[in-house]
Amino acid sequence: MYRYDDYDQQLVDERVAQFTDQTRRYFAGELTEEEFLPLRLQNGIYIQRHAPMLRLAIPYGNLRADQVRMYGHIARTYDRGYGHFTTRHNMQFNWCELEKMPEILAKLATVQLHAIQTSGNCIRNTSTDPFAGVAEDERIDPRPWCELIRQWSTFHPEFAYLPRKFKIAVNGAEEDRAVIRCHDIGLELIKNDAGETGFRIFVGGGLGRTPIIGEEIASFVPWQHLLTYCESILRVYNRFGRRDNKFKARIKIIVKSLGIDEFRRRVEADWAHFKDGPSTLTQQELDRVAACFVDPDYKTLPKTDAGYVQAQADSKPFAAWVKRNVRGHKRPGYASVVLSLKKTGVPPGDVTDAQLDLIADLADRYSFGEVRITHEQNVVLADVEQSALFALWEQARAGGLATPNIGLLTDMICCPGGDFCSLANAKSIPIAEAVQRRFDDLDYLHDIGELELNISGCMNACGHHHVGHIGILGVDKNGEEWYQITIGGRQGNLTHLGKVIGPSFAAADVPDVIETLVNTYVAHRHEGERFIDTVHRIGADPFKQAVYGDKTPAQRKVANG
Amino acid sequence: MAKLIKNQQILDDTWQVLTPEDGADAATVAVPAGQWIVPLAVWQAQPALAARGDVAPLLEGADDPADLADQLGTLSLVAVNFPRFADGRGYSIATLLRSRYGYTGELRAIGDVLRDQFNYFTRCGFDALQPPVDKYTDAQLGAALASLKDFTDPYQASATFRDPLFRRHARHAA
């Protein structure tokens, strides 16, 4: 992991001092609500339904065990004993008092944690592959680049008051696990024919109200020019992006209205003047940062651990967990483990203080003291010896972290929804729970196979419903909560936006509809075919027919067709 | 009298901002004697103003700083308006004036100029900051000077830090 030097630490400490004074002036009446708003937002603080929410940054998803313990401490001391991992490498606390925020941020800063730019119209936390550095299909480790972007984007003076929020994601593997084409800037690390590292750059992707897949703005930008090129994109956006309508203010709207060719022309005209300028990255700086991401001290192990194989034969529950929650690793004898935060009855992504302590302990015991957070709201221990997996599983299971459902229907992505979020049109957590209860039978769940179900409580799409194999979107109809269903969306290299199947449903009907969709898949699937592949092979009509039959929308209770 | 923060000091300021009536013809708007900051359209429509020496152009967010590029060598003041503090276009305009077009005269932020943005203003190249009249008491404005120094050693290159942190200091792997 990246290790702060004195300059990094000083900046975080100065941020705490700055915000402490801003909060003081706010309570003294020297700052209006309007003036304080972007200041608190850029320190991660929303005013939500119950209390202020604090959103903390987990830079590109990486955490040390002592940082996870600090989360546990914050949850116990200032919250109600739990926190929530979001879909963009953030941790959210829902019950902290505004007056206590400076104190909380000061404590977090002691372990290099912060809430910098986790909200507001600025460059947000960069996200990437949770298996960076250990994935078998990795071309180039994205983490040093994410760290360079973190530093460049932190307190960038030119881009703190953009038209709207701005999100960057980086992928360095064959399979895109960072949804880069649904980000304002998506960066794909590649090598050119000469073997030099650079970036294929996508711009203007995003979900939300107007879901758009990002377009390629540059096929290869040499790595030295990454920051100046991104600055030129941001500068064109900052100058010409729409500020008259919040819903049309994301970069995707101006990329669409200008067209990618004109947008590119403006960016490259600007870049011509800044390329090779002082912000050009140096080999020395790259080397300094990359030195923090070298392999840990791996042992030389046999490719397969005999005890591990035997334990799977002896224990069916352990084997089921291995099948779903353990991934291959580039080093012989090692594996990556996904700890599931998708236990039925617990809101997806929620984690208690005791679980946070346990995660930290497991990381220290089995995975070099580091953890990663996935955008699917689970926790990864990236470097575990195969011989330790059984012991790890027993402890994780005792702590409620070993539900064997990664990649299955109940491993759903879900935003906090109307239970917590003041933007939401509808609740999402009870929908997730109702669906999880319907599919709680593990044999059935495993038979259905890989199926990504994503739920958002409003069109801002924090739950990434557009790219779920099945997506559920909460909508408001005359003050009532309704749910619109999409199918056929997917993330990854073949990122695709799902299509709405028809009129929306009342909450109580949602589990039936999901079950009907699943049954339709089971009836049509070929041997070994996943839900998403069946949908793309046979099209949406058989699914619509199964759900709606011959009934017209008027005969069902429907809304917001 | 309006206050101006310049070189980390609070000064009285004698410049006035000319706001033509809606629909006024930029070519015929009268610019009285005295020091006036005028809209870019007026500045462009009345080339004689440049010779006066006591008139300066004002850029709005939608204006293109390239329009001043040929004159920047002779200008002693350029102002950029922030209609709302959350409208950040002026930061890019300042960056372009300083870094791309090489402007070295006074660059003044006017409009909704608040202390919590002072640090970002100056780093983008504003060396003169003019908060709204009556926004701050003298004591508050004095205290606000501290905000200029919110961050000692920022990561980025900008108008005031020619080099990014990694070129300014030898950083060692921790």
TrEMBL record, chain A:
Ranges for domain Nitrite/sulphite reductase 4Fe-4S: 119-273, 413-547
Native source species: Denitromonas halophila
Protein name: Nitrite/sulfite reductase
Residues covered by the Nitrite/Sulfite reductase ferredoxin-like domain: 53-109, 345-397
Record-level Gene Ontology MF annotations: 4 iron, 4 sulfur cluster binding; heme binding; metal ion binding; oxidoreductase activity
PANTHER family: BLR3264 PROTEIN (PTHR32439:SF9), FERREDOXIN--NITRITE REDUCTASE, CHLOROPLASTIC (PTHR32439)
Any Pfam family matching the protein: NIR_SIR_ferr
Keywords: 4Fe-4S, Heme, Iron, Iron-sulfur, Metal-binding, Oxidoreductase
Gene3D superfamilies: 3.90.480.20, Sulfite Reductase Hemoprotein, domain 1
InterPro entries the record matches: NIR_SIR_4Fe-4S, NiRdtase/SiRdtase_haem-b_fer, Nit/Sulf_reduc_fer-like_dom_sf, NO2/SO3_Rdtase_4Fe4S_dom, NO2/SO3_Rdtase_4Fe4S_sf
The keyword Iron-sulfur is annotated on this UniProt entry: yes
TrEMBL record, chain B:
One Pfam family hit: DUF934
InterPro entries, sorted: UCP030820
Top-rank taxon, per record: Bacteria
Protein name in the entry: DUF934 domain-containing protein
